Amino acid sequence: MHPSPARAVTSALGGHVTDLTRPPVATSLILAATAAMSVAQWLYPGLLARLERTPAELHGQPWRVLTSLFVQDGGLVGTLSNLAFLLVLGVAAEQVLTRHRLLLHYFGAGILSQLVGTAWQPVGGGNSVAVCGLAGALAVALWRGDERLPRFAEAATPLWCAAVLGTLPGEWSLAAVVAGVLGMRYAARSRSRGIRTARAVAAVVVLTAAVLIVFHNIHGAALAVGLALALPGRLPATRHPSIRMGLGR
After folding, report:
1. Is 237 in contact with 147 (CB distance < 8 Å)?
2. Within 10 Å of residue 243's Cβ, how many Cβ atoms?
3. Max alpha carbon distance in the chain (Å)?
């Protein structure tokens, strides 16, 4: 599971920064834990095999459904991009989700998709499926026009879709990435002209989930879980007073 290079995330932001209303505490903790395990994986090469998703999780090693979210099978590029997208989408999602809900989306989508993976993709590891849970929440928030979303969420979400579509086989992968990047650029230009594209972005997430499921790609299952968790009612606002992060506009 190794979406596109981390530097693409910077492109997704389009040079814009925004005021955040909440410090991304939950995202920071998940990022730190995942990064630490990634470093440990490089120091101890056998760690991936001990913790990744394999059929053994159904035969006496159930902890693999969780530990497989902290090790990476995509090499250095895949690891850096997974961590970068976790940071960007996590910060955005934490503006519209309580921290408990963010953990539910992240680990709920991650664990359930790892279980699906025992049938579709029996061996592997990476937190990209958990990030898909956050993307599902962002898609629903975009569809509902949630004003708490930072501006970069609308560009970063379709870029993530392009990244996970890039895990499809062969020419499908290249076509999906090109289409996703072009779509992101179109969305950015439309926003600069005052054209709202949030619902189109949400539709792209749904379509991405459907395509991936057709190919039995576990990212599709993870996106579907993220969408389903966010559908009942309005995403709950934070119960804490807003904290202006002062990052400028």
Report:
1. no
2. 11
3. 56
DSSP E strand stretches across the chain: none
In whole angstroms, what is the distance from residue 194 CA to residue 174 CA? 30
What are the per-10-residue average pLDDT scores of the chain (249 residues)? 44 50 95 97 93 87 94 93 97 96 97 93 95 98 94 90 86 68 66 73 93 95 97 56 36
Which residue type sits at 30?
I
Residue from 183, 191, 51 nearest 125 by CA: 51
* Residue 124 bridge partners (DSSP): 53
CA–CA distance, 226 with 108 (Å, rounded to integer): 8
Q: How far apart are CA 232 and CA 185, in angstroms?
A: 31
Q: Report the pLDDT value the prediction gives residue 19, as an integer from 0 to 100.
A: 60
Q: Rounded to the nearest 5 degrees, what angle is found at the Cα of 165, between the Cα atoms of 80 and 78?
A: 15
Q: How crowded is residue 50: how many other Cβ atoms within 10 Å of its Cβ?
A: 13
Other CB atoms within 10 A of residue 219 CB: 33
| 154 half-sphere exposure, CB direction, 13 A CA radius | 28
Tokens standing for 27? 């995202």
141 CB-near residues (< 8 Å, 6+ apart): 93, 96, 148, 149, 153, 230, 235
